């Protein structure tokens, strides 16, 4: 066996370094809530052994017991390694922050660093926040009058349950406590949840380059979490390339990014985000990629590596996840990430500091993918916008760019770009000057 110091393993030459070992125990508990210390092994992994007696074992246990708060109960045992006596100490504990000799430490690589006052404060706040999940808290600002009966009926039908009254129906879904609505009930079924939770919002944008310098479109959407998921999916599919494949004699539209992968990433963003953060779920569409950004990093000690390689999940919003599962939007055992990677292997996951989680899909513009995305495709959103522009011009040949932009709720620049493309394709022409002239549709677009 190769012995090496890590974030959860500390090696000590002998119990003469017992005080330093206590520091390491606290540092590992504060970082990972577990760890082990070996006495009789040098920090380079060399087995040197040491004398071990009943008194040695008692001294180790006593030092840990007396100098660490809150109390922990380690497993201390004698182990023979390569014919030499060593001591192995295994520790676990979830009551962090832990203190050694009155000070708190954190594990960074194979070193122990003392925590600052601000870091300690954040650790305590995070611990208490996690114990009381946002979705199960009572919402004092909402009443049963805020709940939309139609939304509730539709959801119950998906779940195979019957509707009678709003209170009884919410009770079936465990969304009431002491006669009051829980936050999850408001987020999912209120007529206008954004009046109570301003962050019940989706922000979407399309950018003309590889960064945010040129904005082609930007929209904010408000509503219940299920409606926002639908809006998000719809927005992405309207603004990416759509290719085609033949299924028998039928043409089937194929988005450049797998539809199910997009949908799963969007659902995860809303289901697992940190609703205590004021920010919204944001979707940014660039020329080369799509970013789905949700407030809050991975929860429950998960890492990017663990979600990519193992089928594991930790739910920040357990009740909300239960509602998603009941309505068949997510699977129980955390298969979502695996499914995304199966359908879009180039997908990237990233934590930005302590505030955001990014899912990035690489766009396939200009590529050829056998049997699915063929050629560069067309911008579905541009097709729709162009047809709406032509319809407005037929109704009113004197309509202005500003008026068209107001109707379609997009920028003047986007209208101009569509018009230039229509003119280039010979579909549209301008008659007379910019002021006082009119538009003429020359032919129907192909």
Report the strand count: 21
- Number of separate structural domains: 4
CATH fold-level name of the largest domain: Heat Shock Protein 90
How many helices?
14
Q: What's the mean pLDDT score?
A: 87
Question: Any idea of the CATH class of the largest domain?
Answer: Alpha Beta
Strand-residue proportion: 15-25%
- Poorly predicted regions are 366-379
Strand order of the largest sheet: 12-11-15-16-18-17
The share of residues in helices is: 25-40%
Biggest sheet, open or closed, and with what strands and sense?
A: 6 strands, mixed
CATH architecture of the largest domain, please? 2-Layer Sandwich
Q: Pairing-aware structural class of the strands and helices?
A: alpha+beta
- Report the principal-axis shape: elongated
Q: For the CA atoms, what is the radius of gyration?
A: 29 Å
What is the rounded distance between the termini? 70 Å
Which helices and strands, and how do they pair?
Blueprint: E1 9-12, H1 18-32, E2 34-39, H2 54-67, E3 68-69, E4 75-81, E5 84-92, E6 99-100, E7 105-108, E8 111-114, H3 117-131, H4 149-159, H5 166-172, E9 176-177, E10 180-181, H6 183-189, E11 201-207, E12 215-222, H7 225-238, E13 241-247, E14 250-255, H8 259-272, E15 281-285, E16 289-295, H9 304-309, H10 318-326, H11 336-343, E17 348-352, E18 356-362, E19 378-379, H12 380-395, H13 401-408, H14 412-424, E20 428-431, E21 438-441
């Amino acid at each position: 066996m190769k012995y090496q110091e890590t974030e959860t393993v500390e090696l000590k030459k002998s119990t003469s370094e017992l005080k330093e070992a206590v520091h390491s125990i606290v540092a590992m508990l504060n970082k990972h809530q577990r760890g082990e210390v070996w006495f009789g092994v040098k920090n380079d992994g060399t087995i040197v052994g040491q004398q071990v007696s009943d008194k040695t074992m008692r001294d180790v246990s006593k030092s840990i017991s007396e100098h660490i708060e809150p109390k922990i109960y380690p497993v201390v045992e004698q182990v023979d390694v390569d014919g030499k006596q060593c001591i192995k100490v295994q520790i676990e504990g979830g009551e962090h922050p832990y203190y050694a000799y009155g000070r708190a430490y954190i594990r960074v690589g194979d070193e122990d660093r003392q925590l600052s006052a601000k870091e300690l404060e954040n650790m305590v706040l995070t611990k208490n926040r996690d114990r009381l999940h946002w979705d199960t808290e009572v919402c004092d600002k909402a009443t049963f009058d805020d709940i939309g009966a139609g939304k509730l009926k539709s959801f119950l039908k998906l779940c195979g349950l019957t509707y009678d009254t709003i209170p009884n129906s919410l009770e079936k879904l465990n969304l009431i406590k002491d006669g009051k609505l829980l936050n999850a009930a408001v987020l999912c079924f209120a007529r206008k949840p954004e009046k109570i939770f301003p962050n019940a919002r989706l922000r979407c944008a399309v950018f003309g380059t590889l960064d945010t310098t040129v904005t082609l479109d930007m929209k904010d959407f408000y509503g219940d979490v299920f409606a926002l998921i639908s809006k998000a999916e719809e927005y992405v599919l309207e603004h990416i390339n759509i290719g085609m494949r033949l299924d028998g004699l039928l043409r089937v539209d194929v988005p450049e990014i797998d539809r199910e992968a997009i949908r799963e990433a969007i659902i995860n963003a809303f289901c697992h985000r940190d609703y205590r953060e004021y920010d919204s779920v944001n979707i940014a569409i660039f020329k080369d990629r799509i970013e789905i950004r949700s407030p809050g990093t991975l929860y429950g000690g998960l890492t990017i590596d663990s979600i990519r390689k193992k089928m594991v999940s930790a739910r920040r919003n357990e009740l909300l996840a239960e509602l998603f599962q009941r309505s068949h939007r997510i699977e129980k055992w955390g298969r979502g990430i695996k499914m995304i990677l199966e359908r879009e292997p180039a997908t990237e996951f990233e934590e930005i500091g302590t505030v955001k989680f990014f899912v990035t899909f690489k766009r396939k513009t200009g590529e050829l993918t056998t049997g699915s995305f063929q050629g560069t495709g067309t911008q579905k959103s541009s097709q729709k916008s162009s047809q709406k522009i032509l319809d407005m011009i037929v109704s009113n040949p004197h309509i202005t760019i500003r008026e068209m932009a107001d109707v379609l709720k997009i920028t003047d620049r986007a209208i101009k770009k569509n018009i230039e493309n229509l003119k280039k394709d010979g579909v549209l022409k301008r008659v007379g000057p910019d002021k006082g002239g009119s538009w003429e549709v020359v032919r129907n677009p192909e």
